[in-house]
Amino acid sequence: MKKEIEGWIGGDESGGEMLSRVRSVRPFVFPPPLHRVPLRLGNVVELVGPSPSAKTHILIHAAVTAVLPKHHGGLDHFVLFLDLDCRFDIARFSQLLLHRITPDGAQDCDQTLYDLCMSRFLYARCYDTFQFLHTLRTLHCRLEKLKQLHGVGVHLLMIDSIGAFHWMDRASMFLSQRGNKKKLFLQTVSEAVVQNIRKLLQVHPMLVIATKSVIFGNKYSTVSNEVKRNVEERCSKNLTRNHQTFQYREYMPSVWQSFVTHRILVRSSDDHPVGTNYQNSTFYLLEWLLPRLSFIDKIVVKDAGVFVDT
Fold it and tell me: What InterPro entries does the record point to (predicted)?
């Protein structure tokens, strides 16, 4: 056991060997709305948007595709879902899975297939930063046991949402200066999160998709123009702006921002088409910021899942 742990800490391959192995693996080909850019093991995708903006729906849609067998249009992969928001709806996941298994609305579904897909979806909930870090540190042993049991590892890690504890940690850091509580530094926490995920990817190559809730920069519209200008000047270094003047304040430390390889912005749409096909549907705009793409997809959330509106 000690040798196993030492091997895990030290790593069992060089960076060149890891890159060669990762590049030899077929890229993930997701259905819309994540179809624009091929994604590979080792990539870190960040879904950014206000709450709500269908970020968790997109995660669930991708997770259902991942756990389905290839002959059902899936990827035949295991998925690990880390719920930091503590609002994951397993009934919604089951509903989308059943719809994919029985798309024609048949009453009877393939129970064996359903059980297989559900067994491929692994779920863990964290209530604070310390639980999150502990989960990341112990994932290696859990994934090793899973690999020994099923002969295949987890290829998709989802985190919803990566900034869930940021403001609590910030408040804790402020309170620790007044009392005897253990100090919590935001930069140190982010460094530990990135370090643990990076170490995990070296031994268990996975695609990472994380959501992050943000607030667009219209929050100061009710104050005077002079105050607004002063606030904007103070926040200018932390302000991210896309080419359509939608803006949000970036609050995650730079160590996480530089760790992200792909970034997608999701926001609500003011254009709501009228028709029977759009009843009980909500529309959003999805834009690739990293890499920058010149077009924006309009996506619709229906009972059957998330789709690109054509």
Answer: P-loop_NTPase, RecA_ATP-bd, XRCC2
Q: Taking the domain 2-213, which CATH number applies?
A: 3.40.50.300
Cα dihedral: 93, 99, 105, 110 (round 10): -90
Q: What is the pLDDT of residues 244-267, one digit of tens each?
A: 445 678 889 999 999 999 999 999
Q: How far apart are CA 276 and CA 196, in angstroms?
A: 48
Three-state SS string over the chain comes to CHHHHHHHHHCCCCHHHHHHHHHHCCCECCCCCCCCCCECCCCEEEEEECCCCCHHHHHHHHHHHHHCCHHHCCCCCEEEEEECCCCCCHHHHHHHHHHHHCCCCCCCCCHHHHHHHHHCEEEEECCCHHHHHHHHHHHHHHHHHHHHHHCCCEEEEEEECCCCCHHHHHHHHHHHCCCCCCCCCHHHHHHHHHHHHHHHHHHCCCEEEEEEECCECCCCCCCCHHHHHHHHHHHHHHEEECCCCCEEECCCCHHHHHHCCEEEEEEECCCCCCCHHHCCCEEEEEEEEECEEEEEEEEEEECCEEEECC
**What pLDDT is stored for residue 199 in this prediction?**
94
Burial profile 173-200: b = 16 or more Cβ within 10 angstroms, e = fewer: beeeeeeeeeebebeebbebbbebbebb
Yes or no: say if 177 and 171 are a contact pair by the CB < 8 Å rule.
Answer: no
The residue-averaged pLDDT of 120-134 equals 95
Note the pLDDT of residue 222: 41
- Over 60: is that where the pLDDT of 57 sits? yes
- Model-level pTM greater than 0.90? no
Write down the residue that tokens 């460094």 correspond to.
191
